Amino acid sequence: MIEEIRSIIRDHARLPVDVDTLADDTDLYQAGMTSHASVNVMLGLEDRFDIEFPDHMLKRSVFESIAAIAAALKDLQVSAAA
Length: 82
Hints:
Elements: H1 2-12, H2 35-49, H3 66-81
Helix pairs in contact: 1-2
């Protein structure tokens, strides 16, 4: 899952640094991701993982790092399976 998230970030976040050089807990906003780019990342994640982020998850903290995104996706997948 982490590699898929990295791929989506690579394609949609428009970071000025190589996503492969970032740790999973690196703040993506400090690395250069804009709020507009985070929406593109969210849409890419929704398409790839066939999920939809509910309104309560549409906040900066959910998309601030690869680890945070992975945790949110796991929560959504568990909820969808229930």
